[in-house]
Design goal:
Helices cover about 35% and strands about 20% of the residues. By secondary structure, it is α/β, with parallel strands linked by helices. A hairpin with a 2-residue loop joins strand 20 (about 375) and strand 21 (about 375-380). The structure holds flavin-adenine dinucleotide (FAD). Flavin-adenine dinucleotide binds near residues 72 and 148. Flavin-adenine dinucleotide binds near residues 388, 389 and 401.
């Protein structure tokens, strides 16, 4: 139970003096916007180190966990174990999850600043980068972000309807997201059936005609951005062979002795797969009907229309590139002036994500797609912080986001303890926010409500031998909560 209605004095070295009123809450009032890993990890740190603080987590969707639910591939359930830690944090009596509430729509930044001592923005980087090249508006050129949302149940992506009647897909980009989408496209359907992949995508994938997935990158094998675990999965995938262009590996083996781990192990495995595959792989690849084809040193220059399906993509024009300067992991490339066209009937752009300002008062660097900040302190807005992908850009995995969020937590803890944030005047926090949301007719969703959705999804999954069947429509989630 929350102790409501108290004023507190929380200045440097001073003991807490607490005075109650009917509309304020005791201790530092903190709000977090965005219930992904960054939001949960920063909350975890603050409730651990500030015993008087309350943390309210506002989340746009009725369901928590951000990209752990909507990004992480369905066949990687072990990665989702972090949800157990987040659940413990959410169940702390000083933490309140408030789902179905969007910053910029249901609450403004100014309102949050008035209601809380500290406002922490961790609402991620949910938008697409585009290539800005001719033909990008042709049909069946999709962002990998939306394709992932389609198979992972992101509300709004359920009707993406990728046309899988083509035999060849070009994935543009060579990071782990690119490998995730390639794996989902090439995996045997029985392998996917036992995951929490959405029913609508499973149905479409079971009828898919896709036989070849090219993974196209501007740079070489030494600079590939995916990790070894994901590559191993592709090399061993049942019914799928890996096909490389041996020319892409010129000079790679000579360079290997100077490469540091873990890059060295990844490059060794790539070179082995391309130049001297294991006998067991070759044996399995003999009967494979599908193929995974990483292509290096190619940069998309234009999309060309299909001659058989009007208005849709039929090929990608690729500029041939070459590395500049000494070989290194971070080497840049330039175009050679030569081009190559590769035929395909579906393109998935996997060239990164970017954030957007959710509220006009957020200072934003639109070029890099991050909130303007210094080590997490938002420029020009004392008491407002940002973290996770919104603050750093869409880089790294959950463990990197965790490190960033804990660091941000320590910074805010310090600011509250040394009086940089003035927590001596009481603030109402959720007591007042609830009234604003009520007046606007917003149906806020609590963590207990989410647990109802969670249970319903698990029940639906059980009936069809899956760990869960995700509910993809927000209105249906709200109905489950209301029942
Ligand atoms: P997010 O996880 O995006 O969380 C942001 C939250 O803010 C979301 O819940 C969103 O709904 C909410 N939000 C957005 N706008 C608003 C608003 N206006 N008001 C309120 N709330 C809002 N890492 C791994 O370690 N392993 C993996 O296998 C892995 N797979 C990945 C697969 C994909 C496709 C992607 C894109 C990333 C993957 N990652 C993986 C990386 C990992 O997901 C990120 O490091 C991490 O999720 C970033 O956390 P975040 O909290 O900054 O952002």
């Amino acid at each position: 139970m929350r102790r409501a209605s108290t004023l507190c004095s929380f200045a440097k070295g001073a003991p807490l003096r607490l005075l109650s009123t009917s509309s304020t809450r005791q201790g530092p009032q903190v709000c977090v916007v965005g219930a992904g890993p960054a939001g949960f990890y920063v909350t975890q740190h603050l409730v651990k180190t500030l015993p008087e603080a309350n943390v309210d987590i506002y989340e746009k969707l009725p369901v928590p966990f951000g990209l752990v639910r909507f990004g992480v591939a369905p066949d990687h359930p072990e990665v989702k174990n972090v949800i157990n830690t987040f659940t413990k944090t959410a169940q702390n009596p000083r933490v309140r999850f408030v789902g179905n509430v969007s910053l910029g729509k249901d609450l403004s930044l100014q309102e949050l600043q008035r209601l809380y001592h500290a406002v922490i923005l961790t609402y991620g980087a949910e938008h697409d980068k585009s290539l800005g090249i001719p033909g990008e508006d042709l049909g069946n050129i999709l962002s990998a972000r939306r394709f992932v949302g389609w198979y992972n149940g992101q509300p709004g992506d359920e009707n993406l309807n990728p046309d899988l009647s083509t035999d060849t897909v070009a994935v543009l980009g060579q990071g782990n997201v690119a490998l995730d989408v390639a794996r989902v496209l090439l995996a045997p359907i029985d392998y996917l059936k036992s995951t929490d992949i959405t029913a609508h995508s499973l149905e479409a994938l079971s009828k898919s005609q896709v036989k070849r997935v090219m993974l196209i990158g501007r740079r070489g094998p030494v600079q590939a951005a995916f990790t070894i675990k994901e590559l191993r999965e592709m090399l061993k995938m049942e019914g799928c062979k890996s096909v490389f262009r041996q020319d892409d590996f010129k000079g790679v083996q000579e360079f290997l002795p100077s490469v540091a781990r873990p890059r060295k192990r990844l490059t060794e495995l790539l070179a082995q797969a391309a130049l001297d595959p294991k006998a067991e792989w070759l044996e399995a690849w003999k009967t494979a009907e599908r193929s995974f084809e990483p292509i290096f040193y190619r940069s998309p220059a234009a999309f060309l229309p299909s001659s058989s399906k009007a208005g849709t993509v039929g090929a990608v024009k690729l500029a041939v590139t070459e590395l500049q300067g000494e070989m290194s992991e971070t080497q840049g490339v330039k175009n050679t002036g030569a081009f190559e066209d590769v035929k395909c009937g579906l393109v998935l752009r996997s060239i990164g994500y970017k954030g957007l300002p959710a509220d006009p008062d957020i200072p934003f660097d639109s070029k890099s797609g991050v909130v303007r900040n210094s080590k997490g302190r938002v420029e020009g807005l004392p008491g407002v912080y940002c973290g996770g992908w919104l603050g750093t850009g869409p880089v790294g995995v959950i463990v990197n986001t965790m490190g960033n969020a804990f660091e941000l937590g320590r910074l805010i803890e310090g600011d509250i303890k040394d009086g940089t944030i003035n927590a001596t005047t009481a603030k109402p926090g959720y007591l007042e926010a609830a009234k604003i949301l009520d007046n606007k007719g917003v149906q806020a969703v609590s963590f207990k409500d989410w647990e109802k959705i969670d249970q319903e999804e698990q029940n639906r999954g059980k009936a069809i031998d899956k760990p869960r069947e995700k509910i993809v429509s927000v209105s249906e989630m709200l109905k489950v909560v209301a029942n």
